[in-house]
Amino acid sequence: MNYPKPALAITSAQRDQLTTWAQSHTAPHRQVLQAQVLLLAADGVANTRIAAQVGVAVISVRRWRARLTTDGLAGVGRVRPGRGRPPTVSADTVAAILTATQTTTSEGRTQGSCRTMDKAYGVSPATVQRI
Questions:
Q1: For 15-56, how does the pLDDT look when each residue is reduced to its tens digit (9 = 90+)?
Q2: pLDDT, tens digit, for every residue of 46-63?
Q3: Can you tell me the distance from the alpha carbon of 24 to that of 112, in angstroms, rounded to the nearest whole number?
Q4: Rounded to an integer, what distance in angstroms lies between the CA atom of residue 124 and that of residue 101?
Q5: Is the dihedral of CA 75, 79, 82, 88 positive or negative?
Q6: Are 47 and 96 part of one and the same domain?
């Protein structure tokens, strides 16, 4: 049987902050979505109904409810360590490219070139441009 989950217990200060995030046009989308889910959960709406209304998986609703109880508001909108796509270029390589662009120039030129930088660091010209 599917029993409804009890309403998520939050304080009035937490509700105010979640409401601010849920209505924000400048906060990250993940944070807005999680705030909307948590406000619905605090109002006693069932996880399946929340998931259908907001457009996320039921497991996400469960995880976000659990994260709020363990981490508080600090966990809202944050990506857990080890989640998401790993970086393809190491932080050391990014730092080296940044330093080189600020301190060195290509031979016979006044500034560095993406094509000379990419060969020197083993990355694509587009990667150098993004960095």
A1: 999 999 999 999 999 999 999 999 999 998 999 999 999 999
A2: 999 999 999 999 999 999
A3: 41
A4: 15
A5: negative
A6: no
List strand residue ranges (DSSP E) for 1-131, in order.
none
Domain that holds residue 37: 12-75
Asked if residue 109 and residue 54 are part of one domain, the reply reads no
The total of structural domains in the chain comes to 2
First to last CA, the chain: 53
Instruction: Tell how far CA 103 is from the center of its chain.
Output: 33
CA torsion, points 45, 49, 71, 73, in degrees to nearest 10?
-70
User: Are residues 64 and 104 both part of a single domain?
Assistant: no
